[in-house]
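JOB MANIFEST
job_type = single_chain_structure
chain_count = 1
residues = 497
[input]
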Amino acid sequence: MSDYPQDDLNAFFKSKLENAKPDENMWNVPPDFVFDNAVSKINSQEPKRKPAYWRWALLLLLLIGLLSSVFMLVKSNNNYKAANARLQSALSTKDQKIISLENELFEKTSAITAAETKIEFSNQTIEKLQDEVDAKRNVALKNNQQQIQRKANQTSIESKFNKRNNQSIVANNNEIISISTSKDDIAQNDLINNNRSPEIASIPKILSKTNFILANEREVNLNGLDFITLSNSKNDLVDEVFKYGFFLNQNYSSLAMENIPSQSVSNLTKYDNHYSGLGFKFQAEKTVSSKVDMRFALAYQNIQNRSHLDKSNLYDPQNEIDMGNGQMAYNLDVIIDTPFGEVGTQTNFAVDPTLVAPNDEIRQETNTTQSLNIVSLTVGPKYNFIKSDKWAFFAAANLGFNRILHYNNQMQTSLVLHDLKMADFESKPPLIKDINKNYLSAAIGLGFGLYLTDNLQFVFDGQYGQSLNSLRVPKNSSGPLTYLKQWQTQVGLNYIF
């Protein structure tokens, strides 16, 4: 009766006492019909729910998670804009340096071209002067030969004189040729020396500077390409990445019970509690460094437990119910202890008193299926021990706050007496009151991610987790405890901001 407000009980009794006529000796005690009506009225009333403080706590956690996500997203966007501005500034500076070097190279190349043009003009002038010298020399030789021929036609009397004269002419001719040749060489050398411009003289220096400029240009290009490559890679702006993802997960759950008393009915229960169920998860990741990410997730999952009990009950005549017309019924409490607590119901079935005797064995076979829907909030780090532009292999861990939102019981029972089935029924027993609807959990796992595009990543990972506190509230310090263990695999997509 402590679950009902005291004011309501006082008002109810007051209304009943107004019409009551107590005895003179018991003036303050209401008659029996008042108690009967009060009890029936109280039993028909549904207890009022206590304030669900956990709902406010869950809403507060969700609000904190959403605000944190928005804050990190805005911060990530600002950091990305700043990094992009730095990258554009660096690229602009590089372009200006390249343009300056190209202009300098163009000026040097123009100077080389002008020098080559002057050299070609000088060569043409030298060839022209050489032709003129050759023509003059040929004319002089021809005149000398004509003079020699005229002298040869003179009389023999003058032969001796002519001989000496011819020798003199030949000597003169050789001297002329020698002088002409010497003059030609001197003129050619003087012409070359006199026509050498400063540009021609600086050709070796210009070529040396050109080679230096070209080498520097190649180095700048390589550095620029390296800078652009690093700037556009995921590793350079890794601290600016924020990911949102949606995942489907497959759960393989089992329940482990501890502190089970040997005399308890739970000691006879078999648990077929390995169950495979589906769930889904919304997940956000904030990159902290090139190797570490922080993960925040909101997940939903369903787990089930199946329990089976074979138990023998002794027939007790005190549980017989006379149905009239010579028929008898037997009343029996069917109880099974599950990992979440005892569940049971009460049943009765017809029996023939002539076929049963006290302490006859009634065999009870009971199966229960318990279904739990759980919402979880998890947070934890992810370490990328191998990461490239296409692949990422990682290890992850998380801590979670879990809330059991919905709980369902289904029970099927068969009762056999003397190899005859006395009853076979299905029931939905009341919900267990000693289940712990809020519990903490921890998990570790491994996985890998594949970048499908610059903004889309496929992720597959598996993890093993366990509840940190019991899902069953013990009735005392030595009561049974239940821990949830899970293997979970999940696949999904991350969208990268």
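[summary]
The longest strand covers residues 361-387.
The helical segments are 6-17, 32-44, 53-152, 159-194, 198-201, 203-232.
exit_status = 0
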